[in-house]
Amino acid sequence: MSVRILFLGPLRDLADAPEMLVEAPLDWAGLLAVVGPAVAAQLGEARVNVACGGRVLADKTALAAQDGDEVALLPPVSGG
Q: Which of 50, 75, 46 lies closest to 63, judged by CA?
């Protein structure tokens, strides 16, 4: 039973990997514990979003990923 975490954009560089598999279930505290301190610090920023099962969470701290879920860590998008 696992959850796939996808690191997108600059978070991929901080994690030094495009993705990781972790034990399910996964909540916010568990996410912060497994992604490493550099990524965890970025997740605390309001502009960084978290999606679970293809839906961006309105409250990322309410993360409740279950077996087979994909959690995407979405850094702010720049452009113009």
A: 50
- What's the pTM? 0.93
Residue extents of the structural domains in the chain: 2-74
Using CA atoms, how far apart are residues 62 and 64, in angstroms rounded to an integer?
6
Architecture of domain 2-74: Roll (3.10)
Partners of 20 in the β-ladder? 5
What residues pair up with 22 in beta bridges, in sequence order?
3
Which residues does 48 contact at the CB level (< 8 Å), separation at least 6? 11, 42, 73, 74, 75, 76
15-60 pLDDT, tens digit per residue, is 999 999 999 999 999 999 999 999 999 999 999 999 999 999 999 9
